[in-house]
Amino acid sequence: MQTTLKAPVTFEGHGLHSGRPARVTVRPAVAEHGIWFKRVDVMVGDNLIPALWDAAERTPLCTRIVNAAGVSVSTIEHLMAALAGTGIHNAMIEIDGPEVPILDGSAAPFVKTFLARGLRTLNAPVRAIEVLKPVMVETGAGWAMLEPGRVPSMAFSIDFEDAAIGTQSKRITLANGSFVRELCDSRTFCRQRDVEAMQAQGLALGGTYENAVVVDGDKVLSPGGLRHADEAVRHKMLDALGDLALAGAPILGHYTGVRAGHSMTNLLLEALFTTEGAFRMVVCDSLTRAELPGAGVVLDEVPAVA
After folding, report:
1. pLDDT at residue 137 greater than cutoff 60
2. Does residue 262 have an active-site annotation?
3. Residue 239 assigned to a binding site
4. Which of 74, 105, 122, 165 fits a 20 to 30 Å CA distance from 233?
5. 3-class DSSP state of 242
6. What is the dihedral sign for C-alpha 155, 198, 192, 79?
7. Which CATH superfamily is 3-298 part of?
8. 41 is in an annotated binding site
């Protein structure tokens, strides 16, 4: 059955790119509500934004959704990944500004707080998107694909010239809480040489060595080093799960990303939903529901770093 939180939870911090203070409250919602953002600082006009793929702008460094009135919320991917990875299907997310707080740069603080608060089962079945045939998008930099598969799974590959990252690949089945155990604590990352360039463009103004992994050649500049030897590719998978959550329902299929990013995953969802015969909506039986991200996960499975 569909779920929501038992009670509201609040997070406070700063936006990664804006540097502005931000406060987010995730509130329970009824069945069939889905995930919506509400800009509580916007007092006139439409301040509601659906967390759906066709509301997303294609931006390279974060995921931003915008409504018809031009009201937007950015850097939603870690929060969306946490909702998908803990199996929360319905929520109203109130936010007092244009960007979700970055917290520690991962999804772990969201995940830990959601599981500590607890989930409530609702009187409606979970529906999922079953991939029926492969769809693929590519650019000069990389490519992404969705293929049929009985359970949600993911493979990702990255290649950076900095030796601290280098070439990394990982494959994972997203069932039985594997997102919580293996991906949720992996932080966003960047190269030192890119920081000044981003800040000159008005980006990464809230970034620190504590909320992002910063590398320079073969050195990791962030205190404490890496949480995982392959933390970078794990974080790319975390981002991809958050971006795929904009499909509006769990996806039964296999995602592959090769040097893919936010825009490419959004293009992939567009391809899925506009390709005739590429998918169908299914009502999940108990066996399928047990293999969706978040099914059966408990608080003790959150990595201790959170």
Report:
1. yes
2. yes
3. yes
4. 74
5. helix
6. negative
7. lpxc deacetylase, domain 2 (3.30.1700.10)
8. no
Q: Is the pTM of this model over 0.85?
A: yes
Is 54 annotated to bind ligand? no
Q: How far apart are CA 295 and CA 285, in angstroms?
A: 13
- How far is 236 from 187, CA to CA, in rounded Å? 9
- Residue 304: the pLDDT is 66
Stated as kind and residue range, the H or E segment containing 77 is: helix 77-85
- The answer to whether residues 12 and 22 touch, using CB atoms and an 8 Å cutoff, is yes
Q: Note the helical H segments in 99-219.
A: 108-117, 178, 192-200
Do residues 206 and 16 make contact, with C-beta atoms less than 8 angstroms apart? Answer: yes
Side-chain-facing half-sphere of 264: CA atoms under 13 Å: 22
Structure-block tokens of residue 24: 């987010």
Residues 6+ apart with CB under 8 A from 299: 112, 115, 116
CA dihedral 184, 186, 188, 189 (to 10 degrees): -170
End-to-end CA, the chain: 28
Q: How far is CA 252 from CA 51, 89, 166, 263, 290, in A?
A: 19, 15, 31, 21, 12
Structure confidence by residue, pLDDT tens digits, 230-279: 999 999 999 999 999 999 999 999 999 999 999 999 999 999 999 999 99
CB under 8 Å to 224, separation ≥6 — which residues?
none
φ, ψ dihedrals at 302, nearest 5°: -70, 130
